[in-house]
Structure formats: structure tokens, C-alpha cells
Amino acid sequence: MSKTKSLNRNFIARNMGTIMSYVFLIAMAIVIIYPILITIMSAFNVSNSLYSTSFFPENFSWTDNFKQLFANTAYGSWYFNTFLLSIVTMILSTIIVVISGFVYSRYRYQSRKTALMSLLLIQIVPSGSGLIALYAMASSIGIYSSENATLYTYIFMMLIYTAGGTTMNTLLMKGYYDSIPRDLDESAKIDGATQLQIFTEILLPLVKPMIVVIAIFCFLGPIGDIIMPKFLIASMSSDSKTLAVGLMGLINDIKDSNYNVFAAGAVLAAIPPVLVFYKFQDYIVGGLTSGGVKG
Amino acid sequence: MSQRFIFWLSMVIPGSGHMLLRRVRETLFGFSLLALEILVYFQFILPNFRLLAVEQANGKITIGLERFVDDSFLIMVGSTLGAIMLLVFVALHYGFARDAKDVKRQIDINGFAITFTEKVRGLSHEIVPNIITAPKFILLFAFSFLPAIVSIAVAFTNYKRPILPPAFLLEWKGFSNFERLFTNERLASGFWDTLTWTMTWTFCASVLTIVLGTVLAVVANNKNIRGKKFFRTVYILPWAVPAFLTILVFQLFFSKVGGMNTMVIPFFTGNEYDVSTAIGFFLNADYAKITIILIQAWLGFPYVFILVTGVLQTIPDDLYEASSIDGGNAWTNFFDITLPLILISVAPVFITQFTFNFNNVTIVYMLGEATVQTVGAVYKPLDTISSLGFRLMMDAKYNEAAVYTLIASTFVGAIVLYTWLKAGAFKNEEVM
Amino acid sequence: MSKISLRNINKKYPNADHCSVQDFNLDIEEGEFIVLVGPSGCGKSTTLRMIAGLEDITEGEFILDGEVVNNVSSKDRDIAMVFQSYALYPHMSVRENIGYGLKLRNYPAQTTKKQVDAISKDLFLTQYLERKPKELSGGQRQRVALGRAMVRTPKLYLMDEPLSNLDAKLRTTTRTEISRMHRAKGAITVYVTHDQVEAMTMADRIVLMSMGEVQQIGSPKELFTNPKNCFVATFIGMPSMNLIEGTYKDGQFSCPAFTILVCDSDRIILDGAGYDGKLIFLGARSSSIRSGKKYEQAFPDSCFETTAKNVEYLGDSVNVFFDAAPMNMFVGTLGTGEREVEIDEKITLVIDNTKLHFFDSETEESIKFNVKAAK
User: What ipTM was predicted for this assembly?
Assistant: First the structure.
């Protein structure tokens, strides 16, 4: 009798733990999803009042807010600017990172250690610290006064992002190359492969997961950044803004702010990064746990 | 003619050592280098250096001599470049000197030295990797290193609107920008408030992020929990959505008309929403501070969550089996095996989180825009050292911004460097 | 078919104090199977990697078919190599792995396919051709690595401890397999191992190395019966040779555990070399330590009584361990018919004094080596 009772209590106690765990996990999931859902909901809510007290749209419309978004703001060009900027940055930094990671991992030369050390040290410098000089340099060499000011500024930003993204990522990439046994290179060498063939045919396919991770990071960096564009292009025409600057303006200009329109813009802006993230979720998790722990 | 003589002679005049050793091609290279150096020195370095500090009639020390003619800023950049070039020249001289000494040594020992062609061939595997990685270093130099150095210099000038070159000449101010922070009463108290808040913010945001991420990972990876994939997918969301969007969403959400006031609070209290009694989370300094920490934890925990999940998956089952044979239960398993193993891999994350949040301008600046500056205060309540650097920059007070940036960078740099030195990161072949 | 010479090869890594390989000299004849053997860190792998062109040769000449190829890159040396880790390309199927070397050498796809099929049939890999390496067992991977080398007909096969990741049984069968393939191909093979059994069973000639230096080069039999020094003596043979320091005087060798008479032929050599009254090392293989009446009668002057400290039963023989001196355990291998012994039991043992080895106590060189070699 007493045995069954204690067994029973044990059973409940164990279940209590599991139940509590579920409560905690689900509560946290709600905390995460709720603000996101609210935003999505209000993107489809057409209302003139400043606030809404119901979760579901009071005045549902699939398209109204989006139409307004494109009609009343330069959202289309913000979108284009931002993704063009981040895709070009991504391509450029990934190429640089993949090649230099290979060099640091596979070549043994005198200045290698110095090069790695300087990467490590440059990386300490916070990315914002050179902004004043960058801005002043940009205006001194006449970027802002030129005819193609927008284009030049974007190229300038692209180079800054590329430079900023290559330090840590090169070290990450190098670590990943290092995890591939040199035996494979040597084996390929004996099989008759040139250095270029070893790189393209043996190593590149093997480091693909890390290339994907780094490409994603380099892609997301410029999309999410507000510091650089806020400072470098805030004073430019509305057409030349990025999503971050544009949407921030949309919220803070109290006069003509429409939160539902902002929500529509936010939802559209979030779709590409979220899709990329989900498509490559496993790569990111793998890349992070393989070498990302350090530093 | 000793090796030492050859060395120092080449150090002064590159190629001269080689000339004494009758090495024609090295000599030619050395002399052309010298000619190039002289040209660069007189055409570029010297003119910049001359204008770097000019004493004007009124006793002020300016950068450049004449308004509209000299661009102070370009002179500053040029001088920095010049100084770096000088260092490169010294390094090149050293290279020549070492090579000359080496040639001399080989001649002394063997009676002959390797020829120039052999030397170049031997160096080719040194040169190739350097050339491949050169573009990256040029980028880093131009867009990371050089600006950082020049920004430091800005902290010692009076560069702020309206003193913008080339319409005005910048003036050297020495340490006065720094001194003002401590001597000016209003600035000083503002500075200490900011510093305290910066520390609190960095610590609380980082610790909350790490604790939240770790606890969620441990709970979600419990064997009895089903739907792990679902939870992982949900918990990764805050990382997937660009942070600026989430920050803007939360800025709305916590405003007087946001979802927090219109839906969440009424849901829990049962009271109807009323604009007049709604809480403006960013309108009150204390609320704002708590809210921003919570938002940062919301934004940051997925990274830690994924990391710890990875660690948990690498803990082999036989560790737990061994421990249960030794008489361990679920509780001791957690505290004696799981937790220590997690801590080992999470320890470096503390550093990255601390530095990240210390430097985290994005969230502080963006939410800071929503706050209200209290009367009499110099800065807004959410401003941290780093975000002040940015805000002052936006206000075109470049020299003050540079002071804050310099303080923040030094602080972070020192901490990172210290932890690395302590961890032996520079000796570690894994990093190298 | 080719001939290889290694002349005064030295390898010194930058920043290292010592040479990893010192003054390595070896001529390899056509079709020979050479085994480089030695403890870890002895420089055997480094030597192999220099032959492969994976390491620079600091000094000396490597001659392949009459040409110095020190500066010829690996891919142009026409060699095939099997790695300890197998180094299979994880992203390629077995077929691609085996055919990669042919593909790089621009063989027509048809030929490549035919050759890959043939070699995989030979190695029982046909049904795994489309799999990736990680879907194979250890033994299968090893065979793929072997196949990748064997599919080509290079001048030279190199094998770097190819069996060390296999279990004992698989190792024995693969050993036979490699020997068979070597005979079929007839090309020079240089094989590196730390396992003296592999060396003894497979080699035409063994190169025994220690601390970067060659200790002895010779056929397995030569190394076993006529080791040049203590190191060779103890490295070759299982269990390893018993060694003890003692005094040689008036034709007798005495150490704490026993005193035995040295046989006449050895006595002439020892006395002739002036070792009378000096300390020397005595080496005795466990197979020459026996027991029983038959041996006691055959070698009456080298019997002694001792206590069995440990006994290992091996089926057709028994290993008996006893103390020859403090911290120096001797082992004798008794046949099944000889005498049954238990632990801590007193036993009379006999040393076959015609099969003894003697080493100088300072240089540890074999005293008999030069004499024997001269014969």
C-alpha cells in the first residue's frame, strides 16, 4: 500500500517537473510570438485611430496598408537599396573570407602569424569608432557633393561593411578549414591535383556549410544595421534611404505616422531574412557550435 | 667590413651594403627604393607634417595654415598616412639590412651566397599568400584601422559644427575635451550617471541574456520534452528578424498606445484601456531602463540558446550512465555534469556579450530616441558611453563624440586584450 | 619499374634543435617491399613524406630512376600513397574517390570506369561504389584507400601505417592482401609501421629507425638473428629480447640471478675483443630460455634456479617471468611438454648458450655483429 502510494507520488512529482517545463517553454514561446503576431495583424488592419485594443484586425484588408506604404513612402527604393547593398556586401566579403581563410589555414609563410595577429587585434576596435573619420573622409574626398552622391555613399558603406565583416569571419573560416585534415590535401596532391584543384575540388565542397553561415552573417549585417546609414545618409533624399532608416523615420515622425503602415513595411522587410534563416537553420546551428564558440 | 657594419649601413642607405658586396640587382632595388622614399617624403609626408601644427598669429595651434586652402581633415589623414609610411620605410630598410647581413654571412662562411634569382624563387612561396590576402588588408587598413587612428586625433581638436573644414581650420585643443568631462560640473555628473548606467546595462543585459538562453536550452533539451524542433524554431525567431525591426516594434508595443497598454495589461488586470492612465514605458527613466534590458534579453538569448543546445548535444550519454552507476540522480547529474560542461563553453560568451552590449549602439540609440530628456540633465536616461559617442556624432559634435568613442574603445579593447592574454589566445595554435 | 636511391637525407624542421631524420641512406631495388619501422617519433613517417614530396628535403638527394627529384612536386613524382587516416574525400562516392587520380591525369572516362570497376571487384567493393566514405565500415574504408592507390600503376607505392586503425583480425587478413597486391603489381613499395610484426611478415627488407637515425637495414631474418645493437634486439621479436648487464670473466657471464658458461665460439669472440673482466649486456630471446631434463642435460653449465613471478598460458607454450635483477623481469617461453609451473613456484631454467647475444655496455653495439657479418 505504502509502496504504491510513494510510487504514485513519485509519478506525479516527475510529471510536475515536465508540466512546469512545458508551462515555462510555452510561456516563453508566447512572449516571442506575441509581439510578432501583433505586428503581422496590424499590417492587415486598416484603422484611423491611433491604437487598437483587439488582437485581430478590426477592419481587415489584405492590401490597403501595403498600397499606402508604396504610395506614400519611398519603401520600394528603400527595399531595393537595402537588399542590393547587403547582397553585394555578402558576395564581396564571402569571396574575401573564403580565399583568405584558405590561405591562413593551408599556407605556411613567415608573415602568417603577424597577419592573423593583426586580424585579431583589428577585430577589437569597435566598428563604430572610426565613423567620425570615415564620414569626414567621405566628405573631404567629395562623396557628398558629387552628382552620384547616393551611389558613392552606398559603395562607401559596402566597403566599410566588407572590411568590418572580414576579420572575425576570416578567423571563423580559417578554423573551419583547419578542421579538415591536411591528409586530404596531401592525398589529392599525390593523386595529381594542383593547389587550385585542391582548393576548388576538395576543400570548397567540404567547407560549404561554413561558407553558407558566413554568407548569411554578411547578408544580415547590412540589413540590420542602422548606425552607419543613419549617420551617412540620414540627410539625403528619401529615395536613397535604407529600410532601417526609412522605417525608423516612419515611426518617429509623429505627424504623419501610421503604425499599421509601418507594420506592413516591417513584415515585408522581415520576410527575406527570416526565410534565409529558416532555410539554413541547421547550417547556422552547426557553424555556431563547431567554431563559433571561441572569441 | 663586419656583418654589423653592413647591416647598419644598409639600414641607413638601402642597397649600400649590397653594393659593397657587389650585388648589382639588390643595389639597384635599394637605391631606387631610396629615391622613391625621398620623393614621397618631400612630395607628401613633409608637406603634411609641416601643416599638422601651425601656430597662428593669435597663438592658436591649427591644422593647416589658411582657411579654404588647407583642408585640416585631409592634413590629419595625410599625416597619419605619412607616419605609417615612415614605419613601412623603416621596415623595408630593415629587410634590406637583414638581407645584406645574410649575404655577407654566407660569403664569410661559404665564400659565396645564393644568387638573386634563387632568392626570389625561394621567396615566391612567401610572396604568393601575401598577395592573395593583400586586398583584405588594404580594405581593413582604409576602412577600419586608419579611421580609428584619425578618430582618436579628432578627440584632441575642436572639430564640431560649425567648425567644419575646409571653411574653418581645426585647432588642437590638447586634453581639454577630456578635462571638460570631469571639471564641468554638469558634464561631470552626467558623465558619472552615464557610466553607472552603462555598467548596469552591460551587466544586466548580458547576464539576463545568458541565463535566459541557458535555462531555456536546458529545459527544452530535457528528454521528456516533445516538440523540440518546434521550440527551437520559435526561439530562433528573435535572431532571424532584423534587430532594428524588432526594436521599432517594441518601441511601439511599449508606448502609451502600444499593445502592452491596450491588450496585455487589460488582459491581466481586467481594466479597460484608457489612454490617460496608460504607462509610457519610455517616458519614465526607470521603466525605460528595465524595459530596454528585457528587450535586449529577448533579442539576444537565441544565440546563447543555440550555443548551449549544441553543447548539450555533444555531452555523451555514457557520462550520465557512468554517473548513475556511481549513484547519481537527475539532480546531481545536472549540477555535476551538465552545468560545469555548459559553463566551460559559455564562459567565453560572457566576454562577447559584455563587449557586445557595451558597444551596443543600435538598441540604445533607437530606444533612446523614444525617451524624454529630463529637465536639467545633459544626456537622455538611456544613453551609454558608446551610444553617446554616436548621438553626439549625429549632433555634429565630433570632438566630444570622439572622446566618448575613445573612452569606450579603450575600455573594451583593454578588457578583450586582457582576457585573451589570460586565456593565452595568442599562443594558442588553434587561434593562430 | 624503377630504382630508388636516398643519399644522405637530412630533415630539420625550422625552429627545431635536432634533425628529425639524420643521414638516411638507402638504395631500393626494383620490386622491393621496404618497411620503415620504429617507435613513434623516430622519423619513419617523415622519411616517407619526404619520398612523397610532402616535406622538403633539408639536405641530401632523392633519386628516382636516375634523376634527382628533390624539387619535383608530389603530383609529378608518379607515386601513390595510402594514408593512416585513409584520407578519403568525404564528399565523393567510393567510385569518385578511387577514380580521382585517374580523372586528374585526364584518363578517358571509359578507361577510368573500367579500371575502377576492376580494382573494386578485386577488393570486394563493387556493391559500395556509389556510397560515401562515411557510410562504410573501417575495413571497407581501408580497402577504398588501398583501391585508390592500386588503381594506378605508379613507379612507387607509399603506405603510412595503413593498418593501424583496423582491429587485430582484419589487420592480419589485410596484411596478406597488401602482400598479394604488391606481388601482382611488382612496383616498389615503401611501407611505414610501428608494428614489428607487420615489418617481419611483409618486408623484403626492414629499415629500423630510432631518434631519426637508421639503426639497421636488412631482411627480417637478419634483424632477428643478428641485431646490430640493443635497440634492434629488443625492438624485433615478441616477446622482446631479455637483456641484462653483468660481468664476463673467464668464459662465464654472471649477473644477480644466474651465472652461465658462454659457448666456445662466443668465448673466442669476446676474449678476442678484450671483454674479459668487463661489464657487458647479455641478450637472450625468450625462446632460448627453457626448462626440463632434456635442456638441463644439453646445457648443464647454464642452469639456474629461480622463482616464477608470473605465468602466461598461451596454448602451445607458456611464458614464465622471473626476476633477473631488481626491476628487470626476464621471460622464458617453455614448450607444453617441458614443465608445468605455477606462480611463486621454484623452477630450474636453462639458457641455450649457443643462441646468446652480447652487447657492449657503453655503446650498446652488438659485439658479435661485425664478426658475423664478416662471415
Answer: 0.88
- Let me know: does C359 contact C230? Beta carbons within 8 Å: yes
Find out whether A68 and A257 touch, Cβ atoms under 8 Å: no
Cβ of residue C83 closer than 8 Å to a chain A Cβ: yes
Of the CATH numbers 1.20.1090.10, 2.40.50.100, 2.60.40.10, 1.10.3720.10, which one belongs to the domain with range A73-290? Answer: 1.10.3720.10
| pLDDT tier at A293, thresholds 50, 70, 90 | very low
Give the CATH number of domain B184-423: 1.10.3720.10
**C176 vs A: CB within 8 A:** no
Contacts of B352 (CB under 8 A, 6+ apart): A295
Please give the single-letter amino acid code of residue B148.
A
* Cα–Cα distance list, C101 to C50, C71, C133 (Å): 20, 21, 17
A226–B147 CB contact, under 8 Å: no
**Type of residue found at A224:** G
Position C8 confidence tier, pLDDT thresholds 50, 70, 90: very high
Interface check C104 vs A, CB under 8 A = yes
- Report the gap between the CA of A109 and the closest CA in chain C (Å): 12
Nearest chain B residue to A251 by CA distance is B248
Average pLDDT for C202-229: 93
A193–C89 C-beta distance less than 8 A: no
Rg of the Cα atoms in chain B: 30
Angle (nearest 5°) at CA B69 between B66 and B74:
100
Burial class of residue B409 in the structure, from the number of CB atoms within 10 Å of its CB (0-12 exposed, 13-18 middle, 19+ buried): buried
Q: Looking at chain B, which residues constitute the CATH 1.10.3720.10 domain(s)?
A: 184-423
pTM for the full predicted model: 0.86
d(CA B356, CA B325): 43
Cell 631519426 found at: C212
- State how far the Cα of B111 lies from the Cα of B413, in Å rounded to an integer: 51
Q: What pLDDT is attached to residue C314?
A: 87
- What are the residue boundaries of the structural domains of chain C, listed by start? 4-227, 231-374
Of the candidates A181, A194, A206, the beta carbon closest to that of C85 is on A181
Suggest the residue from C51, C56, C75 to mutate for an interface test with chain A (most A CBs closer than 10 A).
C75
Q: How far is CA A250 from CA A74, A265, C107, in A?
A: 11, 10, 64
In a mutagenesis test of the A interface, which of C83, C107, C150 is the best target, namely the one with the most A β-carbons within 10 Å? C83
Alpha-helical segments (H) within C30-108: 44-52, 94-104
Cross-chain residue pair B348–A294, CB shorter than 8 Å: yes
Task: Give the separation between CA A157 and CA A160, rounded to whole angstroms.
Answer: 5
The neighbour count for residue B415, using CB atoms within 10 Å, is: 15
- Selection from B40, B10, B179 nearest residue B102 by Cα: B10
Q: What are B332's three cell numbers?
A: 546531481
Which CATH code is given to the segment(s) C4-227?
Answer: 3.40.50.300
**Interchain contact, A52 vs B262, CB within 8 Å:** yes
CB atoms within 10 A of CB B286: 9
Among A residues 190-219, those touching chain B with beta carbons less than 8 Å apart: none
With 0-12 CB in 10 A as exposed, 13-18 as middle and 19+ as buried, what is C47?
buried
Q: How far is CA B22 from CA A113, B4, B16, B96, in A?
A: 34, 17, 10, 14
Q: Under an 8 A CB cutoff, do C87 and A205 touch?
A: no
Residues of C in Cβ contact (< 8 Å) with A206: 90-91
Whether the CB of C124 is below 8 Å from some CB of chain A: the reply is no
C157–chain A nearest CA distance, Å? 11
Q: How far is A168 from chain C (nearest CA, A)?
A: 27
**Per-residue confidence band for C190, with pLDDT thresholds at 50, 70 and 90:** very high
- From chain A, the residues in CB contact with C75 under 8 A are 189-194
Strands annotated E in chain A: none
Which residues, in sequence order, are bridge partners of residue A79? none
